[in-house]
């Protein structure tokens, strides 16, 4: 599911107190309004203690402390404090615009700064228990309504989704075979989550030290760091920590600042999942003292952590469902929602579903680029649309034949085109051809008589023509190229200029390749998937190896005729 953003900003005012403002939403913005702190510190402490007893004793917490009615009352107070006046109106208007059949979800980002210690009381609020008083529904338990915390750092936080396979580094603070926690089960659950599908590499560091972690991060690029083990929180110092090992295998407590220093320059990381108690908590000495917030401050774009103690049962249920949904293509926040629902489905429904906290600064919420291929159009409407495109291109063929122009109507390689010896390898960034120089005698080259030229200078003067099936001629080894939407390259070994154009026909995506060779008419090839295109010039053929419909890139290979 894709989401539209609704960003609510919480601020500490210079004169004292707090304010709330709708910074961005589908329904617009709002002015700042006063914000009351909905829960006192002692109330949060009592909630945390009740969660801790439940996690240690594997029992349901007392209904008086965190039962459904008590949680509902807390959630209503949180909602009324956050959504006041115009902010509330913008929220409801946004729901009406977004939550429609076939529409997007709404991602509610609660934005808070990290640099002001006065914001610490608001960081300690369990916003994940927000509940709408109108319908009694907890926002965090809705797949249509994602709830994330957004920390404003004044720095770019976006890192684009990575190409498969996803690389996950799992680290265990203890030996999984001997730990008092179910770490071995968690490791197996992580591996099983990806066994049904999805390209992934999983590497485990057992009894990890900071040095071993750093060495591994320097040796290989990892996209997800999953910690399983013990976490702690010192209420006097207001500092969280993780239990790792030293070089002799003895348990040591590592602060969030120490861990952040070891991850700060590892820009391949998209997500850190801290499946340990208290790792999302930060009070007293400032938000940077928390483990999760320290990592966000170090530039990690998404951190998933626990704001209270968490039981083994809840930790396992959450991580198993979270990674299974991530493997099936969910965004991070949608997968978090399904993890919360997995906790709620436990034999003894408990309130731990609100313990996970997602800090996220990724715009799309995705960490892996989708490799899904489009559905083959089988409905009559889609088929008719494709026929219409073919008809339009056929008319274009007749109306755009060159009346003069270059000798014999030949298309020459555009100025600045990519030659074979400088062609990009498949893992390099694609090159685009610079815009053609203005035509002599005034005007721009793209409007020169004899056929239209696009921004790359490639003549588009000929018809839509579907290539034949591959012939029996002898060919040499292919060379690979990557081409972006509206990008163009000149493939010297084929003597052919190629440009790509992604479009939509009805609800179906379509790729059109424009191929221009000297002495031959330009071919406009519609492509729905991997295929081979024979060139009219007889120089060889162009292989469409793969198409990334989300990133709008196509992987091509040239296969010239052997001489």
Fold and architecture overview:
- By secondary structure, the protein is of the alpha+beta class.
- Among the domains are: 3-152, no CATH class; 380-560, no CATH class.
- The chain contains 12 helices and 26 strands.
- It has helices at residues 41-57, 63-66, 68-82, 85-98, 120-123, 183-193, 210-219, 256-263, 291-297, 312-327, 332-344, 380-399; strands at residues 3-12, 18-24, 33-35, 105-113, 131-132, 137-138, 145-152, 166-172, 200-205, 224-228, 231-234, 239-245, 251-255, 271-275, 302-306, 356-360, 452-453, 459-460, 479-484, 488-491, 496-505, 508-516, 523-527, 531-534, 540-548, 553-560.
- Strands 9-8-10-14-15-16 form a 6-stranded mixed β-sheet, with helices on both faces. It has a 5-stranded mixed β-sheet with strand order 3-2-1-4-7. It has a 4-stranded antiparallel β-sheet with strand order 19-26-25-24, with no helix packed on it.
- Strand 1 and strand 2 (18-24) form a beta hairpin.
- Helix 6 (183-193) runs parallel beside helix 10 (312-327), helix 8 (256-263) runs parallel beside helix 9 (291-297) and helix 10 packs antiparallel against helix 11 (332-344).
- The longest helix is centred in the C-terminal third of the chain and has 20 residues, at 380-399.
- The chain is globular, with a radius of gyration of 29 Å.
- The protein starts with a strand and ends with a strand.
- The relative contact order is 0.09.
- The model is unreliable at 372-384 and 395-475 (pLDDT under 50).
